[in-house]
Amino acid sequence: QSALTQPASVSGSPGQSITISCTGTSSDVGSYNLVSWYQQHPGKAPKLMIYEGSQRPSGVSNRFSGSKSGNTASLTISGLQAEDEADYYCCSYAGSGTWVFGGGTKLTVL
Amino acid sequence: QVQLVQSGAEEKKPGASVKVSCKASGYTFTDYAIHWVRQAPGQRLEWMGWINAGNGNTKYSQKFQGRVTITRDTSASTAYMELSSLTFEDTTMYYCARVGGNYGLDYWGQGTLVTVSS
User: Fold this and answer.
1) Is the CB of residue A7 less than 8 Å away from at least one CB of chain B?
2) Which one-letter DSSP state was computed for residue A4?
3) Which residues in B14-111 belong to E strands, given as ranges?
4) From the candidates B43, B64, B103, which should be mutated to test the interface with A, based on the most A CB atoms within 10 A?
5) If you measure CA to CA, which chain B residue comes closest to A41?
6) Minimal Cα distance from B44: which residue of A?
7) CA-CA distances (angstroms) from residue B72 to A60, B24, B107?
8) Where does the pLDDT of residue B103 fall: very low under 50, low under 70, confident under 90, or very high at 90 and above?
9) Residue B114 pLDDT more than 80?
10) Does A43 lie at the interface with B, CB-CB under 8 angstroms?
11) Which of B22, B31, B3, B15 has its CA nearest to residue B83?
């Protein structure tokens, strides 16, 4: 499977909102409501931020939200904070028991 | 609390195999699946495959089909990922992660660095 397409980088100032897109195909993102998003700080393991497209695990700030339209999923972070600076990855079920990650997006908080 | 603890760093020669373990604690091992994900330095996450810890069923990424084997030992609450015919391109961090009931990877191991060097 090909990786899902994410912008290489996004940036925003503290307090602003940013959105990271994750574009797949009708075989993965478009077919299933099983997109998850992960935050990864340097040298650390990824952390689940959103599952099933828009659901937040317990303990994740409500500043993080997810959505989907067609073959594109999105992660929005509102009220940007310095601690949000990290790499973000989307992941989608791709059918037949397989999964695919996005290329990752580096978020810089200016 | 849920924990996944992986085995330590490995150094292997090209053509060799490596087997990484992932010991689970804090939950019923057989109730959840375990995925394996790898990440080369500065690169993206790459899905390798997963195992249903309950029945042992597996599914692998086409990219690694034939080279990767994921197994589990329920008595030890441990999952294993073995990768054969190693090349320099397999020098990367390998993670195990638990699949929550919501299909998100909710707990991750600390990662195991595998270095392939002649």
Assistant:
1) no
2) B
3) 18-25, 33-39, 45-52, 58-60, 68-73, 78-83, 92-99, 105-108
4) B103
5) B42
6) A103
7) 31, 11, 17
8) confident
9) yes
10) no
11) B15
